[in-house]
Amino acid sequence: MASTRLFPYYSYIILSLTICLLWLNAPMSQAHQHHRKTYIIYMGDRTYSNHISAKDFYLGMLSTILEGVPSKHTSEYLLYTYENFQGCVAKLTKKEAKKASRIKGVVSVFPNRKSHLHTTRSWDFMGFPENVERSMMESDVTIGVFDTGIWPESESFRDEGFGPPPSKWKGYCQTCHDNFTCNNKIIGARYFRANGEFTEDDIVSPRDTDGHGTHCASIAAGEAVKKASLLGLGHGTARGGVPSARIAVYKICWADENCWGADILAAFDAAISDGVDIISLSVGGDALPFFQDATAIGAFYAMKYGILTSSAAGNEGPGLYTVGNYAPWLLSVGASTMDRKFTTQLQLGNGMSLEGVSLNTFDDKSFPLIYGGDAANTSSENSSYARYCYPDSLDRTLVKDKIVLCDYFRDGEEPFLAGAAGMIIHDILPLDDPSSFPLPASDLRVDDAERVLSYTRNLASTPIGTIKRSVQVKDTSAPKTVSFSSRGPSLFSPGILKPDLTAPGVNILAAYSPIAPVSSVKSDQRSVPYNMVSGTSMACPHATAVAAYVKSFHPTWSEAAIKSALMTTAIPMSSAKNDEAELAYGSGHINPLKAKDPGLVYDIDVGDYVKFLCSQGYDEITIGYITGETSCCQGNGTNWDLNYPSIALPTSLGPFETVFTRTVTNVGSPYSTYKAIVTMPKDQAIVIKVHPSVLSFKYVGQKLSYTVRVYGTIGRRALMSASLVWDDGQHQVRSPIVVFNLS
Ligand SMILES: *[C@@H]1O[C@H](CO)[C@@H](O)[C@H](O)[C@H]1NC(C)=O
Ligand SMILES: *[C@@H]1O[C@H](CO)[C@@H](O)[C@H](O)[C@H]1NC(C)=O
Ligand SMILES: *[C@@H]1O[C@H](CO)[C@@H](O)[C@H](O)[C@H]1NC(C)=O
Ligand SMILES: *[C@@H]1O[C@H](CO)[C@@H](O)[C@H](O)[C@H]1NC(C)=O
């Protein structure tokens, strides 16, 4: 592979000499700004003449694109250039963007789109105790956390006992107007905002004002901190999965919780140059074609450098086709429950007690009850939405010091601002994700909420209620994919099973930014060093840590090998708990200890991904630009030939038959014999034949191939789950096999 370090220092010069983003804020000649938006011009891996600097190259290109801009002003329209792949970020009109897309060598031109941010107990629940076997190399592993930054003073990021950064580390700490400092735990920290748009809530440094980034970083690599809790809830030791690993911070999301594609791509570019080992990306947006999506492009180059990107599957579930971050070179992590849940009782004046969910840390006290629909502020434009407790809908005098019953899930901001003493939510969504609110609150099931309504309006002359402090109870149904976790298949490549696996993502206790509100309500003034948050955002850093743990034992493994280890050792989950089956949980629930020793791995190299892209309809020229190689869309490649550790077959109604080819690499004992064990759903018209059904290895690193013939008949809107396990008595290397018809 041709090196892509063609202008080695250039991006650094931009990003380091323009610390504080002064350059990015440079005033632009106002006259030329009209109708211009920020676009990413992506040019793949193509090489330029070494005689010309990147800046000159892109300026030359831009000068032919920009219309009505005097050449001396061209540079004002160039926001970023990338180093580890070819591309730049520029301010263009729609017409100019179209023009750019026709230039030879340009793979895609796409608008700078917004993405969004989608313990303690969790590691124990995963069977990964604090005293687990550790590799000496763990402290050489650096995790790049792409998020809202970090709160470096958190106890979770102390660096006592840490040596200097790993020798290959080339990153730095971008400090600025702020007192932000790195240490031997947080070895690098940078921030990105190409459009230079900051709000008054932003601190222009890698410091985290939101809490999300601090939370994710400490789940992955926080030090063990005893006696952590959210104001008494979830009391225990908060710890990351790889407490000796280093953290490199790439702040790409800001106080408005927007994360822009140009900045995500810049963070990948920087992380590759800095020398991170694993990237953790708890950010996502709408699913887009591979090469119009900053994350897919960035992660593709990270993959080329052996860096696995672990990403959140998204919080758009439980509908099908909601999974984001679906590229096969990404690890897509769904969120599942753990055996600890929180319930919150509402006691009514008539003695009735109703169990809801929330994270209520406030003390019990009785207050009168009122239905939001009976407390409308008639002089407000939103008065007709008072039953939903919409912003500016409630009458302050009516709700003051009362518990308000609100229809459907609300964040509690309006009752809180209106001076209410509490809130009861009549929720139509599944109650598997307790939230924090700025005031005492409990989220009730529909039938219970109707009881409260009837009591409040009809039964009692002076209805009163008490919202009790939440209690921790055992959840015997765990692990189960939580309802909000995005489901597959992906719209653009349904033949790759996504999400890949699940990890804990509900009520995870981890470090937080003390200047961020505890709940999602900005005016919530409570400040906590540890907070409990849910999301695939929280599941992702669990998987990141497990990938780092595997990497610490196997530093030379490719990103695909590490991912394979995580997937083939995952604990199967049950379709009895999740109707969407593998489309909800992929290979299953992550199993850190087993992942370290998978026996066999499904490896994939750049060439294999190229063949996959050919099968996705990318033409040879485009792929050539992307990979920098003259490729090779030979034969009739199909996406099921990608050596993926799981098997998915989207098919139309009726009979189906497909032969999949897979190749496993022995990473266990030199001499080992694996037998194929197939499990199939009973009473379903599916047959699976594996050939050969025995694989005998003679050395470590040996590769052997096999085929899986899957045939049968499928009905309308059906999904058949089967699996193949290669078993040598010591390792069970499992791949789910899913056939589905969704039309
Ligand atoms: C650094 O600044 C933040 C606010 O910007 C403040 O909360 C924090 O206490 C300061 N830390 C130190 C070590 O001075
Ligand atoms: C009315 O409610 C809507 C929906 O939540 C909100 O966007 C809007 O700002 C509210 N109007 C006022 C005046 O607060
Ligand atoms: C009702 O809404 C109006 C307009 O938003 C506001 O000025 C007023 O204070 C509110 N009245 C009460 C009693 O909440
Ligand atoms: C590709 O498929 C077509 C039709 O299915 C067939 O005619 C052709 O020979 C195949 N090409 C290769 C290289 O296998």
Automatic annotation (TrEMBL):
Residues 139-588 form the Peptidase S8/S53 domain. Residues 641-739 form the Subtilisin-like protease fibronectin type-III domain. Residues 38-118 form the Inhibitor I9 domain. PROSITE patterns: SUBTILASE (PS51892), SUBTILASE_HIS (PS00137), SUBTILASE_SER (PS00138). It comes from the Eukaryota. The active site is at D147, H212, S537. Coiled coil: none annotated. Keywords: Hydrolase, Protease, Serine protease, Signal. InterPro entries: Peptidase_S8/S53_dom (IPR000209), Peptidase_S8/S53_dom_sf (IPR036852), Peptidase_S8_His-AS (IPR022398), Peptidase_S8_Ser-AS (IPR023828), Peptidase_S8_subtilisin-rel (IPR015500), Peptidases_S8_3 (IPR034197), S8pro/Inhibitor_I9 (IPR010259), S8pro/Inhibitor_I9_sf (IPR037045). Transmembrane segments: none annotated. Residues 1-31 form the signal peptide. One of its GO terms (molecular function) is serine-type endopeptidase activity. One of its GO terms (biological process) is proteolysis. GO terms for cellular component: extracellular region. Belongs to the peptidase S8 family. PANTHER family: PROPROTEIN CONVERTASE SUBTILISIN/KEXIN (PTHR10795). This is Cucumisin-like. It comes from Spinacia oleracea (Spinach). The gene is LOC110778110.
